[in-house]
Every structure is written in C-alpha cells, then in structure tokens.
## 1
Amino acid sequence: MGDKRTIEERLSENGVSRREFLKYCGLLTAVLGLPHTAVPRVAAAILKKRRPSVVWLHFAECTGCTEAFLRTTYPWASDIILDIISLDYHQTIMAAAGLQAEAILEKTVTENKGNFMAIVEGAIPTRDSGVYGRSGGRTFLEIGRKVLIDSKPVAVICLGSCASFGGLQAAAPNPTGAKSVGEALGVKTINVSGCPPNAVNIVAVMVHYLLLGRLPALDEYDRPLFAYGKTVHDQCPRRSHFENEEFVLAFGDEGAMKGWCLRLVGCKGPETFNNCPTVRFNDGASWPVEAGHPCIGCAEPNFWDTLSPFYEAE
Ligand code: SF4
Ligand code: SF4
C-alpha cells in the first residue's frame, strides 16, 4: 500500500535473485497444472503489474488465514501479491485505523464500483439481524451487502474454510447463526478453503486471473479445481501402505515409526480434496500427514461437525 517500487526492485532489495523468483514461478505454474514451458509467461504476468484494486474484508475469524499468507516460507511471496494487486483495504496490515480506515473502504468501493476484487476471511453471523458480528458500527451483514453486493466486485474470493463454508463459527450449536459468505449474502464466491488455506493457492488464483484474464474452473463447492481436484488420499505418499493394509494403530507405535497409513488413527484424507501432498508447506519441506499427523479434513464443508472426532476412525 503506497510502495512505489517495482516488483524487481523489491525482490532485489530483499536479496531474492531472479533464479529464486523463477523457481517460485515454477511452483505456481505446477500448482495451476500448466506445462513447465509456461513459467516465463507466469513470471511475465506477475511482473506486468496490472494492479487490480483489492478490498480484503475480515468477518468472524481468527486472522489465521492472513497470518498464513503473510508468513509464507517465501517471505517475499506476500510482497509479490501485494505488488501485483492494489490492496486498498486490509484491516490487519493497513496503517489507517478507525474512521479513517472506514472512509478508505467507502472511497475504494465507490471509485472502483464493478471493477475491484474482494478477498474475504471469516463467516458472517446472521442471527438477530447479524448483531453478533460488527465492525466500524456496522454488522458484517451490512458491510457484506454494501461491499460484496451493491459495489459489484468482479470476484469474491473466500480465503479459508470460515468464509467458504462457515468454519468453526458455524459448527454446532452455532449460536450466532454464522454462515458462509455465499450463503449469508447469496453471492457467488470462489472458495479457497482450508484451515488455514495454503498461501500458494490464493497467489495461484490471482496469477490465473492476471495470466488468462479469467478466474479458474471450480468444483461443486466452488473451489478452484487446480487445487481441490483430487483427494489428499489419492496423492498421499503413504497410499501404498493403505493398499497393503499396513496401518498405524496408535501414535508412536511401530507402524508410526515406519510411516504407515494413518487411517485407523483418524485420517480423513479419503474424504478431503486439497493439494497439500504436492504443494506442501514451509518451502515444500513437509505437510501434516508426512509429519505423522492425520488429515482432519480442514478444506471440506462443515468439517468440524461431519469429520470429527479427528483422531478416531469411522
Ligand atoms: S495417511 Fe491418510 S491420506 Fe494417506 S493413505 Fe492413509 S488414509 Fe490416505
Ligand atoms: S492435510 Fe488435511 S487437514 Fe491438513 S492442511 Fe491438508 S487438507 Fe487440511
């Protein structure tokens, strides 16, 4: 916000070589399912710097998705996204606060009506006219109607399972009547689900838009197919142990030490669509199942209710 340096200048000042930048572009290219020959086009799309205006809203959530995004292992990846877009409103990282921040939101959606993107974190409480979720004197329902309906964004991208599906806020008994953004407002959303989602996937959605001028194909839950097209189970390196019926029966047992399948200690990989096994976390170092923890199904609708208890087999 307000930084006039080019992406190349920012990367260079952060000690990021062109080689490292192209390596990251290679990761994005693979995530999008494009051939390796597309890497230069992906890099060019990022460096082209078209800067669509983006408003990033926080509703009922823990800000974990923002944290996951800003604390990516590639510390400069967030710089890239903050440079290829014009992030005009984001409560967590913007300098303005209070009435000044609200004035910026109003100005941004008025001046860019019909020509901005919205990223949303968090569910929307709907019970009692939405009184259980408020910011700047307005309910989340009122903010959502103003920004996500009346101001006609070109896309509403839900970041994380709370915005996508309601998440923990909507888990039983759901005292605030929390709902997903799409359900609460009746708007079409692109759901980059997960608790938290992998930051690479939200960057890939943006790059897809910059590269091809359109948003990616979606699955039945409006998740990008490039990231949610296969189950965790179908991509899992422990899969051969599942087929051979070699199961961990208790954490720390012999099977656990041998890296066997975690299904009988609760793994929800067969029910869960996400690209964690291939994209992984922490610079591709590992991912939960590889580290010995069952998948808890965090990218699926209503996983707190339908896929728990997390450490028990069905
Ligand atoms: S550990 Fe989970 S995801 Fe991997 S093979 Fe076993 S059940 Fe499937
Ligand atoms: S392995 Fe499962 S629970 Fe863990 S982040 Fe991936 S989808 Fe979510």
## 2
Amino acid sequence: MLKKQVLSPGIKRFELDAAEIARKALPGQFVVLRVNEEGERIPLTVADTMPDKGILVIVFQEAGKSTKLLGSLNEGDSILDLIGPLGRHSHIEKFGTVVCIGGGVGTPEIFPVARALKQSDNKVISIIGFRSQDLILMADEMKSVSDELIVATDDGSNGNKGFVTDMLKKVIDRGEKIDHVFAVGPVIMMKMVSKTSEPYKIPTVVSLNPIMLDATGMCGVCRVDVGGESKLACVDGPEFDGHKVDFDGLMARLRTYLPEEKLSLEQYEAAKPKGGCCGGKGGCCA
Ligand SMILES: Cc1cc2nc3c(=O)[nH]c(=O)nc-3n(C[C@H](O)[C@H](O)[C@H](O)COP(=O)(O)OP(=O)(O)OC[C@H]3O[C@@H](n4cnc5c(N)ncnc54)[C@H](O)[C@@H]3O)c2cc1C
Ligand code: FES
C-alpha cells in the first residue's frame, strides 16, 4: 500500500501498487482481494486508477470483520492477493444528459463512471447523498466531472435535505430531458432510484453488490434475478438494468449470513489488543 487516507468515519481510501490492474481497469469493474491466508475474499470496485504510475485506488466502508482487518493495514503493508479487473465495464457512450447517483460509499464507485460519461461529451448531473454532513465524500471530485452537482443529506445538515430519489424527482420535474441514469449505493437506494425513473421510461443502470465468493462465474453465490432470468453478478454484471432487477430477492440473499457475520465481527473485536489493533501506537485505529 502506497497511501492511506480516512475519508470519513469508517471509510478509507487506499492507493495500491498494482500496475497491471491499473493499466487495464475500466469504469464499473472491480477487484477481489484477501488480506491474509485465512481471509475472506473481498470484492471492491475500482474507484480510480493512475495507469502511468501503476496505482489502483480502492475506497471501502468498514462493514464487518474482513473490511475492518483491511482498514487496519498501514502504508508499506502488503495485501496477500489481489485479482482483477473483474466484471463487465460500464457501457459509456454519448447518451445526451445523464444523471449519476452515488449513495454513501457508492459515491467513489460512481466517480469513474461519471468522469467517463463527461469525457464522452454527455451533460452530467450528479446527485450524491449521505446520512449527514460528516459522512460526505468526494464532493470536490464529483463536482470536477459534473455540469451540476446536487448534494443531499438525510438530516439536512449540508446541502439539500432529503434522499437522492427526492433530488432525482426534482430534476425530472423541472422538465429536463434525461437520457440515462446510473446509480450505485445501498440496494434499497438503487431500488428506489429505479422505481423513480421507471414511470418516465428513463433507462437506469445499477451496480449490484451481492455476496461473492469466487468472482469467476463458477460458484453461483452471486446470482441475481434480472427480468426473470438468473444472472451472475460477477461475470454478467455487476451493472444491470435497474427496471428488471429483483431487488427484494437480492436483499433477502444479502441477509443470509447476518448471524455468522455478527459473530465473526464480535470475535475479531474481542481478539484485538486493548487500546485498539495497534495498541494505540500506530495509525491503524484511525
Ligand atoms: C462487485 C462489488 C463491489 C463492491 N465494491 C465495494 C466498494 O467499492 N466499497 C465498499 O465499501 N464495499 C464494496 N462492496 C461490498 C464489500 O465487498 C462488502 O462490504 C465486504 O465484502 C464486507 O465484508 P466484511 O467481512 O467486512 O463484512 P461482513 O460482516 O461479512 O458483511 C457485511 C455486509 O457485506 C456483505 N458481504 C459480506 N461478504 C461479502 C462478499 N464476499 N461479497 C459481497 N458482499 C459481501 C454482507 O452481506 C453484509 O451486508 C462491493 C461488493 C461487490 C459485490
Ligand atoms: S461469485 Fe461465484 S459465480 Fe459469481
């Protein structure tokens, strides 16, 4: 790891020395990594690349044991294994006017997509939403690739009060012709975005995050129902037509291992040295 930053509470940005992936990765693709020999495979979206410097950027939320362990690494540390780029890249063309929506940690994931759409001469209206002001991420970066940036917070502590779907409805209601919507964020958010755009027949692409295991299309763990067909998010996606995804089925599958995930986190927290993972001496508890 070359650089570590804490973007907001529990959300970290790593710059990794991974030249081959940095050269090949395109917007919408992801990588899978393992921190150590016993580690779970963690799928994470390619948040950015610097191909000339051989740098791959990941941004992740410490959701449970594996992402907390990843977050405890420091500059100079190594990740045991990292594979990618995986998945199909976003379909980028000149659509006209596009709305790019990022919810929470979905914002760093929508950033390369918004940038590629801007570079392809689209008018980009970006909407990014967070629970509150202290959780706002990458607003400056999103502004730099957007013709208009709308920031929303659930509690109104910054920007507009409300959900990203309220902001999308406002943009639609002001009469702007929208040719495409791209959305990345919590499953419930992507479901509501798709429901908002559907009556207006605005093509809507969402990036799904089911539990993944091999990420090569062989285990079947990441299957999702799209338009009545079973699809594998790792090789057929992760992006799909939001108007066809069975979001309720996806949410039910994501809940499958909740008791095991909770137990695993409790055991990890209990095993940590007192004063934090570095005994309060290093930067790992940041
Ligand atoms: C294609 C893809 C891209 C992703 N990109 C990002 C990203 O850029 N940033 C980010 O913060 N998160 C991203 N995620 C989610 C991230 O992989 C999970 O948060 C992480 O695996 C959780 O592991 P954990 O052990 O810390 O938490 P756990 O306690 O195991 O789980 C916490 C939550 O993460 C889900 N989860 C657990 N294991 C997996 C797994 N192997 N695959 C997918 N979800 C899992 C669980 O259902 C649960 O909702 C992505 C997921 C996918 C599938
Ligand atoms: S993760 Fe195994 S088939 Fe997709």
